[in-house]
Write a structure and sequence with these properties.
Layout (H helix, E strand, L loop, with lengths): L13 E2 L15 E2 L10 E6 L10 H9 L1 H5 L7 E10 L2 H10 L2 H23 L2 H5 L2 H11 L6 E20 L2 E21 H19 L3 H12 L6
Antiparallel strand pairs: 1-2, 3-5, 4-6, 5-6
Helix pairs in contact: 4-6, 6-7
Amino acid sequence: MKTSLIAGMILACVLALPGCATGSRAAALKVPAQAQAKPFESFQIQDYETKGEGASIPEWVRRYLTEGVRGVESIPEFRNKYVFVGVNAGPNFKALRQWEEAFSPAQDFARLVAARIEARLSPVTQTTVPDSTYGQFFAALIKRASDAQYQGAVKENGFWIQQLFSTSEQNEEGEESEEIVVNREVYDFLILTSIDKVQLETQISAMFNAAKISLAPKRNQAAAIDRIRENFFEGF
């Protein structure tokens, strides 16, 4: 099989929930920081889902690989929507396919939203002391986001690519060791979901209110929470 080197591609960075699939529901879901991206060391696209049909990699996949979800959201059909991409990777194609088939917005979408909310709040936690400024609000909001059932979330599409990673390892023999390059084949399964922007913002705003009410914050904490809410969706 001919290999095509896709130089310059980058994948979204991954938060929490570690990762190699071992079964459909048991497979760990990698939750990307949806708007961020970082380059992998070096890789080649060995194969992809529609290559055998002579088709190219879909635009949403190419945009995601190079720009993250911001790129996907700039595609005309998604401009009034928030998009989220669930990612799972490993060498076991069958297990990853089972994970893809078992993925459902009702069960899996909440973790993607919660990760994006956490990423949006991250700059605030780096410039303040969250517990004293906001009380337990952040933890309460993330929990509600993780447990919520989101109305309007749609599983749009799925796609897989096979990558060849080049990594360096130490080969020890006797008293000497040398560095060798090892090539590893890994499948990445991507699942695209979307939701209307107004619909999601309405649901998250309701979570803000519920989390704030449940904690009964002090006056200064309530004011700080309100300031966060005012521009929360800018850059979300």
